[in-house]
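Obj.: predict assembly geometry.
Materials: sequence records (below).
Method: joint structure prediction, all chains together.
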Amino acid sequence: MQWAVATAAFLASVVEFVEAFTIVLVVGVTINWRSSLAGALAAAATLALIIATFGVALVEFVPLNVLRLVVGVILILFGLKWLKKAILRYSGLKALHDEEAIFEETQAELRARGENIAPRFEPFGVAMSYKAVLLEGLEVAFIVITFGSSVASSGTARSLGITSAAIGAAIAGVLVILLGVLVRAPLKRVPENTLKFVVGIMLTAFGTFWAAEGIRISTNGTHFEWPFADVSILFLAALYLLASYVLVTWLKRTKQHGTAGSSTEGIEAIKEEVVS
Amino acid sequence: MKVIRAIYNFLVGDMIILVGILLTILVLALINNVDALASLRSATGVILVLAVLAVLVATLNREARAKR
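Observations (raw structure tokens):
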């Protein structure tokens, strides 16, 4: 069991499960649970098929360096996407609670369509639940395969890595479902932004590490190696954390200046109107 | 076109991040595979980290300007 991989996969997957579960919950409450769960189960079956087909091929036939480079780049892209959103939320430039917004938005959409809670299968409810679970589940599958397969150098160790990542993701899924069943409401209390921020930092740090390690495509000549090997990931995470703190402070100041600027402009306009 | 757009939105959804990181990887691939640039190979990590931070600053700057 590789605990670092399992923990990283657990944290990354929790975010995706929370998002998917919110949609399943809304469809269940607003339309009916039968449609919602049917969509979610169908998506889970599709996911299993996709992973069984492409997951194995990915692990067996792709050279490790190429895999590390591709995975590293994709993790950097994912990580920066999440980090950007989290920083914007911390600085107040973006709404903090996405789940709440998704819940209200989806409910309004369903009501606008005149949907009522019905005891039979509703195609719209099934499709909505299916779409959400498939999309978020693909992200989880992606996290499991990338985290698991890039961490080790041999085929056996890669399989162990994927198993560890899968266990981390599975625990995350079970925990989110249990939590959801217990509270029976949108998961407002899960600090989504903190989670996304931490995961964004981790994905970017892992991505930077792997991309630089895998950048050597040809087999000749010297190649780059991180000082202190895997421990560099911790330094990278600390560096990105510090940079994010600086960026949040900068954006907060920019926002305050913008607000102060617009207030001053407003006062000046009122003065001009009074004078004229 | 819809498929490409869906993949783009799924992976990143931000042109500054996508172009910035891909350009950086292209430069690093050249540094690590062209013998004439071999002296720069030891700086691969530093270049990548600086590029990632520059991309993050650029995309946040765009968002901050858009909100003003």
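Conclusions so far: The CA atoms of residues 1 and 66 of chain B lie 27 Å apart.
To do: check interface contacts against the pulldown list.
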